[in-house]
Write a structure and sequence with these properties.
globular, Virul_fac_BrkB, mainly alpha, transmembrane, membrane, transmembrane helix, Ribonuclease BN
Length: 288
């Protein structure tokens, strides 16, 4: 208990010293401004692959784990943007969409570099190209996941035709949509913590922060959703037509703070283990 209290206290103090609240604001705004260019790129890519309707399903999957009060108005605005006629992937707009989408990845990189206390030595253009690569891989992965979700009901119907006794599992298959979104979220956290910041860490070293982040995201999302169910009218009164944007920003600010706190927790554990190892070695050397 003393060890855990020391680690949590160290993580909290470093969160403040590393400007965690300010970086959370930067991440929240970067994600919100990057979301629309990213989904525009996803839509263009889906159209290039011959199935533009996949982008609408991709939006639903992307917002699957968000509180309904946050996701519903934002998804509506995204839908309005995606239904506009656009050029293909090779147009200037498509290139700019990819570039601006990478700003969200860069914001996450800055936050984790500060949390882990590492200095970035790679050139800025290498980092930006890497972020663009993450955006393109993420878009392809999202469309691939969407395609599997779209075909899942058809596959299940065929399976029931040949094996009717599987019908009681129908509800389980319905809930699998949320389960898939959850697994994708966990995989994204692993990739971001392991490969995005400078230096290298093992899966065991980043595991506590990932579990901490995911657990608080689930709890925070439920609490924030309950709060909006009671007090969403306050946002409408204060911000009028900007209420949905402000609600999304506050939600993103909350999950960004939790994300940074997860990185700080991992860093605090690494420092605590290093100090324990150093003390153990110094004790062994001083022993007769």
């Amino acid at each position: 208990m003393r060890f855990m209290f020391h680690v949590l206290y160290d993580a909290a103090m470093n969160f403040v010293q590393d400007d965690g609240w300010a970086i959370s604001s930067h991440i929240a705004l970067s994600i919100l401004t990057s979301m629309f260019p990213f989904l525009i790129f996803v839509t263009a890519l889906a159209g290039f692959l011959g199935s533009a309707d996949l982008s609408q399903e991709a939006v639903q999957i992307l917002f699957q784990t968000w509180p309904e009060q946050v996701a519903k108005p934002l998804a509506s605005e995204v839908h309005n943007v995606l239904t506009q006629t656009r050029g293909g992937l090779v147009t200037l707009g498509g290139v700019l969409s990819i570039y601006f989408s990478s700003s969200g990845v860069e914001a996450l990189r800055i936050a984790l570099n500060r949390a882990y206390g590492v200095a970035e030595t790679r050139p800025w253009y290498v980092l930006r190209l890497e972020s663009i690569g993450y955006v393109m891989i993420g878009a392809v992965a999202l469309l691939t996941l969407t395609l599997s979700v779209v075909f899942a009901p058809l596959i299940w119907t065929i399976a029931l035709h040949f094996a009717p006794h599987l019908e009681p599992l129908d509800r389980l298959v319905t809930f699998s949509r949320f389960g898939i979104a959850t697994l994708v979220l966990l995989l994204a956290l692993v990739i971001v913590h392991k490969f995005l910041p400078a230096g290298r860490r093992t899966l065991w070293q980043i595991f506590p922060g990932i579990v901490f982040t995911f657990a608080l995201w689930v709890a925070g999302g439920a609490i924030f959703g309950s709060y909006l169910a009671e007090f969403a009218r306050n946002y409408v009164t204060t911000y009028a037509g900007l209420a949905s944007v402000m609600i999304a920003l506050v939600f993103l600010y909350m999950i960004s703070s939790i994300f940074i706190a997860g990185g700080e927790l991992n860093a605090a554990l690494l420092r605590a283990r290093a100090a324990a190892e150093k003390e153990k070695k110094s004790g062994a050397v001083s022993a007769p």
